[in-house]
Amino acid sequence: MAADLSAGPSEGKTMKASGVSGPDADVVLLEVPEPPTPGAGQLLLEVEAAGVGPWDRLLNGAGWDVGLRPPAALGVEGVGRVVAVGPDVERFAVGDRVLAHEAPLPGGSGFWAERVLITAASAAICPAGLDPAQAGALPVAGLTAYQSLEALGLSRGERLLITNGGGVTGALALQIAAARGIEVTVTASASAAERLRGLGALAVVDYHDSDWAGRVRGGFDGVLIAAGGTARAALSLVRDGGRLVSLTSDAPAGERGITSTDLYVRPDAAQLAHLAEAVVEGKLKQNVEALPLNEGPVAFARVSAGQAGGKKIVLT
User: Fold this and answer.
1) Which pLDDT score, from 0 to 100, does residue 6 have?
2) Which residues, in sequence order, are bridge partners of residue 53?
3) Which whole-number Å values give the CA distances from 20 to 11, 67, 110, 191, 235, in the listed order?
4) Beta bridge partners of 80
5) Contacts of 281 (CB under 8 A, 6+ apart)
6) Which residues face 41 on adjacent strands?
7) If you compute the radius of gyration of the chain from its CA atoms, what whole number of angstroms results?
8) pTM value surpassing 0.70
9) Do 143 and 272 touch, CB atoms closer than 8 A?
10) How far is it, in rounded angstroms, from Cα 303 to Cα 18?
11) Can you say whether the dihedral through the CA atoms of 92, 97, 100, 104 is positive or negative?
12) How many CB atoms lie within 10 A of CB 267?
């Protein structure tokens, strides 16, 4: 379709954001330049909700280069209304609600702001009935869970161990795996055990127990590491020729024919559309806490310190 720039930003205008003023700076409330007019294959969104995750602390010079150009908003996921469409975009129109995980960020600034520029190929139409907070919470954790299970390649009846199964990503991976007929054991706090059994876990092991690995029946076909520092112990529980996938960048060297790899999430609109439909249909449950944009620094601090209580925080 032809580009619709009628709702595009005006040169020199600023917008409210939660982000950083420079490399390695603290997260604060600030005014940042509005995104540029969408180029070929791009969309401009008016953000409705944006996810906050532990990965966001890596965006500002700490390990994940997403093309941030401070002063800039953080955030690599969210949902919003399309307000301008760049050339060569045919699947979307002004007014569409879309959700996306975007990295790198084409506008140099992220979703924790009033507007964000994204690549159209990363976006999925938000299904009718999907609450903005639920939509904004889904992209990174949902895609990470989905892609990690694809990498593990497990089949019905096989056994999977997830460390930190009570976390945002681990709980989604648990549900997806259980729906596929995979037998899932998770490590989590004792207080989360009932909830996780309700999501499909066959067994829940208290990670506070220093000998948690000794209390698990080994021989797992696959292990998903979602808790830092658990990969080495978990490797001993994988059967010969099994697989280990780490989300915490600490996959140990393989042994006994075990394939051991680190996984880094990538944008995928088709997978995201599938996940969003599963949430609408009640097949995937998320534990979401919505906070206003001006509480972005507080939300960032809580998530970075591991104090979100198993909830996915979104800024609205």
Assistant:
1) 41
2) none
3) 21, 13, 11, 36, 38
4) 47, 98
5) none
6) none
7) 20
8) yes
9) yes
10) 15
11) positive
12) 22
Nearest C-alpha neighbor of 172 from the set 51, 283, 273: 283
The mean pLDDT value for 106-130 works out to 97
Q: How far are the Cα atoms of 47, 147, 177 from residue 122, in angstroms, in the given order? A: 15, 15, 24
Strand-strand pairing, 183-188 and 203-206:
parallel
CA 59/CA 93 separation, integer angstroms: 30
Which amino acid is residue 61, in one-letter code? G
Residue 287 burial (C-beta neighbours within 10 Å; 0-12, 13-18, 19+): middle
CA 245, CA 235: separation in Å to the nearest integer? 10
User: Given this model, what pLDDT does residue 3 score?
Assistant: 37
Task: Give 28's strand partners.
Answer: 19
Tokens of 69: 């150009």
Query: Which percentage of the chain shows pLDDT scores above 90?
Result: 92
Q: Give the separation between CA 162 and CA 164, rounded to whole angstroms.
A: 6
pLDDT over 60 (residue 199): yes
**b/e map of 85-111 (b: 16 or more CB within 10 Å)?**
bbeebeebebebbbbbbbbebbbbbbb
Amino acid making up residue 63: G
Q: Taking 80 as the threshold, does the pLDDT of residue 8 lie above it?
A: no
For residues 177-196, one letter each, b for 16 or more C-beta atoms within 10 angstroms of the residue's C-beta and e for the rest, the string is bbeeebbbbbbbeeebbebb
Helix (H, G, I), strand (E, B) or coil at 18: strand
Cα separation of 58 and 54, whole Å?
A: 8
Q: Within a 13 Å sphere around the CA of 71, how many CA atoms are in the beta-carbon half?
A: 15
In sequence order, which residues have a C-beta less than 8 Å from that of residue 304 and are 6 or more positions away? 54, 56, 57
Longest Cα–Cα distance in the chain = 63
Tokens of 59: 């965006």
Q: How far apart are CA 137 and CA 177, in angstroms?
A: 20
Average of per-residue pLDDT across 250-262: 96
